[in-house]
Amino acid sequence: MSLTNAQATQSEPGLMHRSLVDRPLEIVSGSGIYLTLADGSRIIDGCCGAAVSGLGHGNKEVQEAIMRQYSEVAYVHTMAYTTSSAEELANELTELSRPFGLTKAYFVCSGSEAMDAAMKLARQYHFENGQPQRKRFVSRRQAYHGNTIGAMSVSSNLPRKIPYDGALLLENVSFVSPAYAYHGQLDTETEEQYASRLVQELDDEFQRLGPETVIGFVAETVGGATAACITPPKGYFEGVRKVCDRYGILLILDEIMCGSGRTGTFFAFEQDGDIRPDLLTLGKGLGGGYAPIAGVLVGQKVVDVLRRGTASFVHGHTYQAHPVSCAAGLAVHRVMKRDNLVAKCFEKGALLEKRLRAAFADAKYVGEIRGRGLFLGVEYVQDKASKRPFKPEVKFGKRVHEAAHRRGLAVYPGSGTIDGVNGDHSILAPPLTITEEELEELVKLYKEAYDSVERDLLL
């Protein structure tokens, strides 16, 4: 029986979902590491959505802090007013970042907005520093920095860019190789030699463009969802910092997904030597999913130049430093600090990696397990010897995701891992509050899901 136009309209949801064909499942509640669906079934949130829910779900302290802020003042415009929640969150974050030269915090509602703000700060810094000819950015392939025009322009997530390329995206961006050892490091190279080659490639790109024309270099400290938690080789970011300093180019690190304690240190770059980024973006775990918040931590040298010039940042948002979002971020930060969750993340991450390596040691299609802390990626390949990926139409990562969900586990699937078209992966990023017993259950369900997909392909 065919539907009438009126019936068809009524059956369509008013909300525009990511897919116009498949509707997402409705969640009715969350507690700890669990999400409860409308049908009553429970799902272990093994990926925190997109590495967001660091404290898990239903934290009463954060909820109470949000309600207190609502009872005091829900909104003020930052052109004229500020609130204690915004001031205190900025002070507590810069207390951590000040040793690295990052002395100011600028709060927005999403990681995409944070990256756009960082790009504008970088450009304004050079403009007010007497170098208006600096108009270019250099970024890395297989990286994602956000969905707004600026952030997408410095990203190289091909499926998300294709509809807008040549029409909306900036053309003053070029790309160098990612720090992706599994596919990029030569068999004849040491880790240090690989790092040196990547740094030289960046230097060569600056030279090709004319280093005096470059605003900044943008990079995820630990790769995010596009290439699944790729980690830099030893010495890479120290070399990058020196090359940027040589030419007066700003180093912009994106820790929207990997920061806020997710990798076992509050800032992911702390594990890579003396880096000191000029601008650092944070998001996702900053608010733990309790309210939309992201931010930019700003280096003192950037602040000094702006202070000597216009003494302002030519940028702003209606919901900038929103009181409730900042209250949520502040409460999340204080719970993490009090409960020592960042150090525990480092320990639990090591345990999770150990369990994964043991469980998947003989897995036919698991090419590499990588990452830091509770931010681990698993890359699938059809042939481990050659690292040859599955054809895109196999949808290996999606199959694992669906098999895991049927068993009560959410993992973060990805495709186009290698070059935007080829490659599959899953990301595991459970709440930092997860217990050892819950980690064991996560690995068990994930292995069962993988095994079912492997069996299906071998039949």
Automatic annotation (TrEMBL):
A GO molecular-function annotation: transaminase activity
UniProt keywords, alphabetically: Aminotransferase, Pyridoxal phosphate, Transferase
Any matching Pfam family: Aminotran_3
Listed GO CC annotations: cytosol
Family of the protein in this entry: Belongs to the class-III pyridoxal-phosphate-dependent aminotransferase family.
Protein's name in the database: Ornithine aminotransferase
Species the sequence originates in: Trichoderma arundinaceum
